[in-house]
Amino acid sequence: MYADPGIIRKILTQDGDTWAVVGLSSNRSRAAYRVAEVLQRFGKRIVPVHPKAETVHGEQGYPSLDAIPFPVDVVDVFVNSDLAGTVADEAAAIGAKAVWFQLGVVDEAAYERTRAAGLDMVMDRCPAIEIPSLR
Questions:
Q1: Distance CA 100, CA 56 (A)
Q2: Residues 46-103: tens digit of each pLDDT
Q3: Separation between Cα atoms, residue 51 and residue 119, nearest integer Å
Q4: pLDDT band (50, 70, 90) for residue 3
Q5: What's the CA gap between 5 and 13, in Å, rounded?
Q6: Residue 39: is it exposed, middle or buried by C-beta count within 10 angstroms (0-12/13-18/19+)?
Q7: What is the rounded distance in angstroms from the CA atom of residue 66 to the CA atom of residue 94?
Q8: Rounded distance, CA 76 to CA 123, Å?
């Protein structure tokens, strides 16, 4: 239910190419760093969102979703499950089309709120694992 193959395909191929990656920093040992790199390789524009607002993979970072001065299509969430619901709510507030909770990030109430707000959502999956099979 939380990783519907049709929704996965739609997010990765139709919902847009600008991905805000929440929790992305310049720390090369973190999963967010590697996943953002894969997304870029598949033509996605990544937007680092982290309190440090670092430039990562050549893209300017921002301290929060609402600080990004242009539209975001997908919000990819690399924060723990306790914080993820707030990020999903912020994604809806900025007009994103979809929210993607990474492996291990689960918040069923946030999933229901996000879907009720009209956004596509995937939970507990990794786009870097999913996207190569779609090309």
A1: 20
A2: 999 999 999 999 999 999 999 999 999 999 999 999 999 999 999 999 999 999 999 9
A3: 25
A4: confident
A5: 12
A6: buried
A7: 6
A8: 10
